């Protein structure tokens, strides 16, 4: 096990990483169900997307709270910049997901469309980006 300088901890706690897996997976699958709906016009796919987005927002809300606490606590540590970037990525992911949830709550025929698809893409990209920043920071510090 490598020695770390005193006071330097990895950005991603194991429990935090587990919680982060929910928005990463659920936003990704929500994008896939949106694409499937646009290809098939089967309304049930929008229902799947809606539930996946809600699940991602629930898990993502916990991750957002944790990332804000990390960003506040990292003011004097070596990984201040990555924790701020990480918190910003999680915040954008969550806000885009919330707007996407409102978009998907509209009438089933118009719930996805271009707007819903773009919001799903944004949510997924920011979830994956936040995961990458957190993972990269753990590898650099460890």
Automatic annotation (TrEMBL):
Sequence ranges assigned to domain DUF2231 in this UniProt record: 13-133
Organism: Sphingobium limneticum
InterPro entries tied to this protein: DUF2231_TM
Keyword Transcription: no
UniProt keyword list: Membrane, Transmembrane, Transmembrane helix
Residues spanning the membrane: 12-31, 51-72, 84-102, 108-134
UniProt keyword Cell membrane, yes or no: no
This protein's name: DUF2231 domain-containing protein
Matching Pfam families: DUF2231
């Amino acid at each position: 096990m490598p020695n770390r300088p005193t006071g330097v901890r990895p950005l991603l706690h194991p429990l935090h990483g587990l919680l982060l897996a929910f928005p990463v997976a659920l936003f990704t699958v929500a994008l896939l169900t949106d694409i499937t709906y646009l290809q098939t016009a089967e309304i049930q796919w929008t229902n799947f997307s809606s539930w996946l987005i809600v699940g991602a927002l629930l898990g993502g809300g916990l991750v957002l709270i944790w990332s804000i606490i990390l960003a506040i606590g990292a003011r004097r540590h070596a990984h201040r910049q990555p924790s701020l970037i990480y918190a910003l990525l999680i915040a954008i992911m969550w806000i885009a997901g919330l707007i996407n949830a409102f978009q998907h709550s509209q009438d089933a025929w118009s719930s996805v469309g271009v707007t819903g698809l773009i919001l799903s893409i944004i949510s997924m990209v920011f979830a994956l980006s936040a995961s990458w920043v957190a993972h990269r920071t753990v590898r650099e510090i460890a």
